Amino acid sequence: MTITTVSNREFNLDKGWAKIAARSGPVFITDRGRPAHVLLTFEYYQRLTGGQGSIVDLIGLSLDEDDIELEVTPSNDPARPADLG
């Protein structure tokens, strides 16, 4: 397996090349020098996930809104202008 790293700019200039490179292994796409995205073939993705249907299944989250609890406390603080100086 070959890992290829390209900048976001390089990826945007030649997406076809990146798709071809992904056949040999993951393609890391960097943003300002830091890995930001990974391009994989669908077959490789399926091998990584064990063929499960979605990433939500993999991380074990439930999308049932009854399971979500969120407490929001209203703020009485007045809005202030941003200090951009």
Q: How large a portion of the residues is in β-strands, by DSSP E?
A: 15-25%
Strand order of the largest sheet: 1-2-3
| Overall shape | flat
Q: Per CATH, what is the topology of the domain at 1-48?
A: YefM-like fold
The CATH class of the domain at 1-48 turns out to be Alpha Beta
* Run of helices and strands: EHHEEHH
> In CATH, what is the homologous superfamily of the domain at 1-48?
YefM-like domain
Largest sheet, in brief, is: 3 strands, mixed
Number of helices: 4
**Into which percent range does the helicity of residues fall?**
25-40%
Oligomer: single chain
First-residue to last-residue Cα separation: 50 Å
- Average residue-wise pLDDT: 82
Global structural class: alpha+beta
- CATH architecture descriptor name of the domain at 1-48: 3-Layer(aba) Sandwich
Work out the radius of gyration. Answer: 21 Å
Structure description:
This protein is of the alpha+beta class and 85 residues long. The chain has a domain at 1-48: YefM-like domain (YefM-like fold, 3-Layer(aba) Sandwich). 31% of the residues lie in helices and 18% in strands. The protein has helices spanning 8-13, 15-21, 42-49, 55-59; strands at 4-7, 27-31, 34-39. A three-stranded mixed sheet has the order 1-2-3. The relative contact order is 0.13. The mean pLDDT is 82.
